[in-house]
Structures are given as C-alpha cells and as structure tokens.
Amino acid sequence: MDQSVRAEHVPVLIIGCGFGGMALAIELKNNGINDFVILERASDIGGVWRDNTYPGAACDVVSRFYSFSCDQDYEWSQPFAPQTEIWEYALKVVERHGIRPHVRFNTEVRDASFDERTGMWTVDTSVGTRFTTPILVSAVGLFNHANIPNIPGRDDYKGVSFHSSNWNHDFPLAGKTVAVIGCGASAVQFIPKIAPQVEKLVLYQRSPQYVMPKAIFPGASEFDAWLQKRKWLRGLARLKVYLMFERFILRRRIFPNARLKGEAAFRALLERKVKDPELRKKLTPNYPMGCKRQLVSDHWYDTLTRPNVEVVTEPISRMDASGVVTGDGKHHSFDAVIYGTGFTPTTYLTPMVIKGLNGRDLNEAWRNGAEAYLGITVTGFPNFFMLYGPNTNAPSSIIFMLECQSRYVVNAIKTLQARRARYMNVRADRQRDFNVEAQARLSTTIPARADCFTYFKDPSGKITTNWPGYATEYRWRTRAVKSRDYEFTPS
Ligand SMILES: Cc1cc2nc3c(=O)[nH]c(=O)nc-3n(C[C@H](O)[C@H](O)[C@H](O)COP(=O)(O)OP(=O)(O)OC[C@H]3O[C@@H](n4cnc5c(N)ncnc54)[C@H](O)[C@@H]3O)c2cc1C
C-alpha cells in the first residue's frame, strides 16, 4: 500500500449525507448501532437541499409528508416549504440525532472493491484515507450530476453562465438580459422569481411541461393547511397526504383514462391564462400527462405571458461569445445564460467505480440498464446496499422510500450478525424475477410510451428510475430481509 494512504476500519460505511444518509444514520442509532461513518464529498450535510439554492427552490410534495416520520417537530411556514426551510430542517435533524460527529466532510468516494476472502469492502477516497468495511451503503442520491447540454460553442460564451443547481448569487440579475436553456422542474420554480427583475428573459424550450396549480395536489387544500398547523394533528395530517397519493395511484390504475380529464383541465387552465394562440401552442405538450414528473406552480403561465419574457421553441444550433443562435439563424445576446436542464439520474453511481465478486464492475453489470433487487441490493455485490437505487423513485415523498430502505439495510445487518455470515449476496434469480415483474408493470405506464421522452428512462428506453406500484407495497416488500432471497457465505 502507498505509504501516504491512511487506513481505517469501520463497521458500517455510508456514502453521502443527504436525506438518505441521514435516514440510515437515524435507523442505525435507533437500533443501537452507533459505530458508523458517513463520507460526504461536500462541506456540509443536506444533499440536493444544500446545493439547490436557486430563487424559488421548494418542495413539490407537501412538507408535512416530505419529512422524517420520526421527526415531525418542525413548524413549516407553508405546505410546500422553500429550500431554506428544508435545509434548516435537515440541519436540525442532524443535530437532534447526533449525526454530525459521524460525518467526514470534503471526502469523496472514488472507488470501492470487495474482497471475497475477507468479506470486506475497500473504499478509496479523495483525501487519501482508505477505509475497510464489511457493510457499504451508497446514499449518493439521483440528482447530483448536473446535466449541461453539449451545445457547440458553449465554451466560447463570455457572459456569466451557470446551472440551476450551482446558482451564482454573486451575479445580480436585475436589469440584465438572461437566457434560460431548458424548462425542467427547477426552471419552473426559478423563472417566476427572476422574470420580474430582469430586463429580458428568453426561455429556450425543447419540450413544454404540464404545470398545474398547487391547490390540486395531495395535502394542499385549506383544510389540510389547517390540519398541518396543529401540533397534535401532525400525524393525521401526514397520513392523509400519504393516503391521497396512494388514492391517486389507485385511480390511475382503475381509470387509465383519468389522465384525459387531467389533460382537459390543463387545456382549460392554459386557455384561461394564455390568450395568445401562438404562445399557447408552444406551451401545449405533445405527449400525455404522466410522462414526466408532474410540476407544480401557481405562477408559471402568468410569468410566461409577461412582456419581458419570450418563449423560443426553435432548437439552439450553437452558442458564441455573446449569446445563443437558433436553427433559424436568429442570434440573441445575453448578459447571462442559466441552464435549467436538470440532472442525469439514470447514470446512478457514476463516476464511482464499484467492483464486486471476481472484480466485476457495477457499470459493466448495468450496461443494459441499472437494476437491483427492491432497488437496494445487486447480485455479485455482497454486503453492498443502495438507498434511492434503481426503480425506487416514487411519485410521492422520496423520504418515505428512504426510510423503507434504511429499515431494510439495518434488518440485513442484523440478519448477517444473527447468521454469523461473512457476507450475503442477493440471488440472481430473485433479482431477475423482481426486475422482470417491475418492467412488465412499468411497460403499461405512460412513461413507457414511445412518444414519451423523460429522465425516467435510460438511453435504451428502459425505465430504470420509477417504482411501479404503491408506496404501501414498497413498505410491505421491504419490511424484512427474507433469507430465501440471499445466499449467505459463512465466516
Ligand atoms: C431541486 C430538487 C427538488 C426536489 N424536490 C423533491 C420533492 O419535492 N419531493 C421529493 O420527494 N423529492 C424531491 N427531489 C428529489 C431528492 O433528490 C430526494 O427527495 C432526496 O433529497 C434524495 O436524498 P438523497 O440523500 O438520496 O440524495 P441527495 O440529496 O442527492 O444527497 C446525496 C449526497 O451524497 C453526496 N455524494 C454524492 N456522491 C458522493 C461521493 N462519491 N462521495 C461522497 N459523497 C457523495 C452528495 O454531496 C450529497 O450530499 C428533488 C430534487 C431536486 C434536485
């Protein structure tokens, strides 16, 4: 071993301290497992809620539900809390549960490999420390790699440019000309905030979104807001939102054409809000509702009809030193270009290199699309667990899913201890059966349609992100580690 590399052994090693790493830390502590380390590449906790500080950043799930089930002691100022509050909540949770001392900040995991003989993972980091651990858990999230489009001439642009997840707060946008490229979930939140300040905003839109008002979302009624404010009714308020999401999935199953009603409501909203037929046409999606994540805003269409806002649907052909050129040859100069182009969720754990049994590379194992058993374990990668892994993206609160996964991981650790096993490896047939079932179910959903282009799918068209069923089903299926799903190798 290189003499400059420091070695350290830990019983449980977690990568990432967003809500996923925090959920597992809480579960470990609740089960008396206090000896664990979290490696976090950034200088603080919080994951996406630390990084996405753009104006208007907020939850699109009611916060009473988008929060830890065991930590409801927080007064949200509004049903869909802003990023500042969510991050503050995360900081409080970390303090309340004594998680911070377990975290090594500014420490990025580069690669990890499994030694069959010892049953240990060896994990190399950016700071030169090499960890060994019998239990390795990835909690790196799905939205931590910004997707910046490869536009010809992008690097020639001399103005200010940044991605929404890396907002440049030092550059005042007031009175400036601004291009926004892309209109994903973040752009729908920040454009209404910056449009009133800037001189001119041009939105380069590849594909319009279905954006609906907050009031129609689970838990957003006035009665819900009343419930959510009452300390002693918080549990009930939360349960109600949970059940509303489940009812939404049930309705979609029983009445597959219910989306047509949703699309009609959307068209009526657009008619009401956007009087210019040409703009209305630009803003009307040519794909079915449900193809992408449903977006929420009360100000989106009012913003796009402002006199200082223009929506351009002509594709961008290139950028130059001063701005953007579209396919029709039109050139616009800008003081700033903001990328609202989202993330690359289907790349999952990259750029980390994870090597399991016989040195098999996880990226290689996933060359036909990421898959795992229950989104948590992968055959050939013993004692390696994932939070927010493949096919666990739910339409409701991801924190609920992370809590299910954390319980499962702790259950797996206890199972290993009880069996005195060196390692557990999910059976290939169990993983295959699970994924055949998941893909069969997903193939009947809207995102599977050929006319649906969405980040839920990988480049081959396989839906690798979404959970196919109810949140309750996920809770049930992850309630305990079943011995028949795993091969256990004795110590
Ligand atoms: C702008 C935005 C809004 C969202 N809104 C909602 C919402 O309203 N409702 C909802 O349910 N979900 C929402 N999501 C999804 C969100 O990702 C999840 O809800 C949740 O925050 C995921 O937590 P996580 O811990 O799994 O991942 P993250 O929050 O991404 O945290 C992962 C952590 O791992 C660290 N990390 C990554 N790689 C390494 C490495 N190699 N070594 C060390 N550390 C590493 C990162 O720095 C980060 O701190 C949103 C996502 C974004 C980007």
Number of strands: 22
Mean pLDDT: 95
Terminal Cα span: 26 Å
Rg from alpha-carbon coordinates:
23 Å
Structural class: alpha/beta
The number of helical runs is: 13
- Approximately how much beta-strand content do the residues carry? 15-25%
Give a description of the structure.
With 491 residues, this protein is α/β, with parallel strands linked by helices. Helices cover 29% and strands 18% of the residues. It has helices at residues 19-30, 48-51, 83-96, 185-194, 222-229, 234-254, 258-273, 277-282, 300-304, 362-365, 398-419, 428-442, 471-477; strands at 6-9, 12-15, 37-39, 103-104, 109-115, 120-125, 129-133, 135-138, 160-163, 177-181, 200-204, 211-212, 295-296, 309-312, 316-319, 323-326, 331-333, 336-339, 353-355, 384-386, 421-426, 486-490. Strands 1-7-6-5-19 form a five-stranded mixed sheet, with no helix packed on it. A hairpin with a 3-residue loop joins strand 6 and strand 7 (129-133). Helix 1 crosses helix 11 and helix 5 runs antiparallel to helix 6 (234-254). The longest helix has 22 residues, at 398-419. It is globular, with a radius of gyration of 23 Å. The two termini are 26 Å apart. The relative contact order is 0.14. The model has no long low-confidence stretch (mean pLDDT 95). It binds flavin-adenine dinucleotide. Flavin-adenine dinucleotide (FAD) is lined by residues 15-21, 39-42, 47-48, 52, 57, 59-61, 66, 108-109, 139-144, 186, 352, 387-388, 397-398.
Walk me through the topology:
Elements: E1 6-9, E2 12-15, H1 19-30, E3 37-39, H2 48-51, H3 83-96, E4 103-104, E5 109-115, E6 120-125, E7 129-133, E8 135-138, E9 160-163, E10 177-181, H4 185-194, E11 200-204, E12 211-212, H5 222-229, H6 234-254, H7 258-273, H8 277-282, E13 295-296, H9 300-304, E14 309-312, E15 316-319, E16 323-326, E17 331-333, E18 336-339, E19 353-355, H10 362-365, E20 384-386, H11 398-419, E21 421-426, H12 428-442, H13 471-477, E22 486-490
The structure holds flavin-adenine dinucleotide.
Flavin-adenine dinucleotide binds at residues 15-21, 39-42, 47-48, 52, 57, 59-61, 66, 108-109, 139-144, 186, 352, 387-388, 397-398.
